[in-house]
């Protein structure tokens, strides 16, 4: 069970990485500053989770949780910014692509930052379950 949960977290990180690359490279969607920062927190998770899963590392949560929690907080901030809950004046995107323009993926409310939030949350939950299974 505990090893399977790592495979789930790894699959989520791989899917998120491939989806972000597909959106920017194949679809031509240029990422904003906050999207880049979310990528900075997601991409290393693929390598860390793959190495930790293959090596059956016991202290994997010390490497994964900081990245997933920072990505979770950043994607929540970005989602709140896009949904207008946080005013645009608090946006760090002063030049280039606006961080407030939502790219709707499905159902007219699922945006890239919201999907990022869900993925970071799921990875965090997987790692917490893994950590609990270690004790």
Automatic annotation (TrEMBL):
The cellular location(s) given in this protein's UniProt record come to: Membrane
Tell me where on the tree of life, at the top rank, the source sits: Bacteria
Q: Where are its TM segments located?
A: 36-55, 62-85, 105-130
Task: Cite a single GO BP annotation.
Answer: protein folding
Topology of the protein relative to the lipid bilayer: Multi-pass membrane protein
> GO MF annotations for this entry?
protein-disulfide reductase activity
**Family membership noted in the UniProt record:** Belongs to the DsbB family. BdbC subfamily.
The protein in question is named: 2-oxoglutarate dehydrogenase
Q: Which organism is it from?
A: Candidatus Doudnabacteria bacterium RIFCSPLOWO2_02_FULL_48_13
